[in-house]
Amino acid sequence: xxxxxxxxxxxxxxxxxxxxxxxxxxxxxxxxxxxxxxxxxxxxxxxxxxxxxxxxxxxxxxxxxxxxxxxxxxxxxxxxxxxxxxxxxxxxxxxxxxxxxxxxxxxxxxxxxxxxxxxxxxxxxxxxxxxxxxxxxxxxxxxxxxxxxxxxxxxxxxxxxxxxxxxxxxxxxxxxxxxxxxxxxxxxxxxxxxxxxxxxxxxxxxxxxxxxxxxxxxxxxxxxxxxxxxxxxxxxxxxxxxxxxxxxxxxxxxxxxxxxxxxxxxxxxxxxxxxxxxxxxxxxxxxxxxxxxxxxxxxxxxxxxxxxxxxxxxxxxxxxxxxxxxxxxxxxxxxxxxxxxxxxxxxxxxxxxxxxxxxxxxxxxxxxxxxxxxxxxxxxxxxxxxxxxxxxxxxxxxxxxxxxxxxxxxxxxxxxxxxxxxxxxxxxxxxxxxxxxxxxxxxxxxxxxxxxxxxxxxxxxxxxxxxxxxxxxxxxxxxxxxxxxxxxxxxxxxxxxxxxxxxxxxxxxxxxxxxxxxxxxxxxxxxxxxxxxxxxxxxxxxxxxxxxxxxxxxxxxxxxxxxxxxxxxxxxxxxxxxxxxxxxxxxxxxxxxxxxxxxxxxxxxxxxxxxxxxxxxxxxxxxxxxxxxxxxxxxxxxxxxxxxxxxxxxxxxxxxxxxxxxxxxxxxxxxxxxxxxxxxxxxxxxxxxxxxxxxxxxxxxxxxxxxxxxxxxxxxxxxxxxxxxxxxxxxxxxxxxxxxxxxxxxxxxxxxxxxxxxxxxxxxxxxxxxxxxxxxxxxxxxxxxxxxxxxxxxxxxxxxxxxxxxxxxxxxxxxxxxxxxxxxxxxxxxxxxxxxxxxxxxxxxxxxxxxxxxxxxxxxxxxxxxxxxxxxxxxxxxxxxxxxxxxxxxxxxxxxxxxxxxxxxx
Length: 906
Known about the structure:
Helix content is 56%, strand content 6%. The chain is of the alpha/beta class.
């Protein structure tokens, strides 16, 4: 749906259309109760409005000196023409120009130079008598945006020049320019109020006033795109400030007020706002998550009911279509084809036509592609293909093997980035009747030949017999439902299609599932051999596989894996930001995906911005945001085993504990409670029951989410200190029933395990024979034969479990001390997030195998594992010798059994 997304820009991008401005301070008129900042489009008397904005001298020469500093590139001085069309073209060119530079400081400097040029060109266009009103409105917007950027950049007199310019617009003879001036004045007044509030009561009044004033702007402005975009900006600011009720009220008013606009784009974006509210209301994402977790008839019905509610919404438009398409795509990816079929049928009924023919054509294409993709499983593979020599490719020769058909192209950067991983998977499975075939979607065959001349693949490459100018219209793409690459089609040994995959990172897991289902191999690979096969040659790196001319494409995707903290942290917020700009920066960083949030320097940059915001004379609201987002990022990193983050988190909580502001006290409460629970490991046991009751009362009244995972695991670890099995069972049940209600599926699943009656106690397991197999994080199957005759610790754990991570170094010390033919470890990892496991294993150099996914969950059920970590020592005779939750409780057993093995080896 990228075409539709480009056609109708996503709502959040409007934050960048009107940059946040620096405030100059202000106060309310206590005598009248009316906001001193109130600026309305309908005001006829402009004198009051003008007076509300402080005056200043415009000194363009000083701006030039401050920005240029003798280093300006005078080759780009703007247009010398007085033709308004030429000046408009110059402005468009300058606005589209990227900020060049090798460092953040250099890019900022060049950006400000460009803004200065834009301001000059805008002045020129405004002064040309023959310029149309539309051109003058463009010039006014460009000048206001440029002066705002210069003011944020602390250029001398830029803010005064901006305010003077707004006054000139408000007193202009052109009513449309007057309206634009009032709109800009309204923006300035918002920022003044948000940065000047002295206490929560004043901030609350300002926010309520701003909301009402924004609603007042709607009447008579239905066709004004600038007003529409600015009001959305206000609603987003309210939402960022956690004023969700005011934000929802304003969003709803905007949607209803602009949905009948004669401006087509405005009307559709207004409808999109109303659509988003419906998506939120029917809880589609939550229902899908529950269905994937439980896969019950009830959860299936609830999920489909949400889809039906969504697709029967009267004002459904492109956004709901996009959400439904994404849902269907996800269902297909996860193998829920019958449910995907139902969603696609509902989509076709909901969108029988559309008023924009181009958009409707794209909708039909998307639906057709997904229908085709969804119909693939179970079909005979009959795709026509040629070898690079022009001969017909014979698929029959591959019967009896599992075939991975990899659709790729030389112009596809993600395809190139995935090649080293694909080769690792190929090496791992090539001896197991699995073959790979590369299907190139290159239209330019010469480019394909040149690529393969420099980069030989380990599998054959084929092409479509039919050529086309558009790669998405070749028969192969149409027959396989392909609208993006890389993607893979897996064919079974019977020649029938098993699955369509978009994500190469899970290819090994899918192949293992297929092989386990089709046949039971006599023996799996030795774990140590698998390890070696899956480790790339560090001396060359991934880029050694790719010809030099293709490296620029690959570098975009590879740099995240190779980057290290730079001397200048690339994530740091620019210097000189105002309080409100720092708030915007912090919320923007909060929205980044995990792949970015865990990069070196990210956490430090967020903490730095929060500290800078706390150092300003901003409102309590802004300071609370700073504390909350700083502690959030530190806690997230600490929860995944970052010891430095744990220490910083502890220090930050202590540093703010003396702050008596109620809003900050509420933020700190969670972290103080968590620290309290973690500390229960070190207190006298007779004081723990009361502490557990206190913890239960707190959690019972909390809205449990993913951030409570660490506290939950610490609570269970404390419960495991008790020898009384009945007391443990009672505590597991009551806390488990709390965790089950969590919106986080991992915590809810943990709760279900805790609350279920335990079939076997730990003491009852001792003396029983135990064997393990299953899918490992490396994609292979655990070879239990390789562990027989050794002392083996089987560790049930998860990356989100603080006690598990605390025990890990102790377990690793034993692993490193004893020889491998005497002692080994097998992890039973209960993470649902395999990326989290991969990050932890890499960061902590964990060398032993980890059983994952359903196999790990099944072993947790089989051995009635409630709390983690739970560790079993299995002796050389294959029997369980001890079970405990701490390494120190197992050390004597391990030493005794290890001596036995060593004596037998002599």
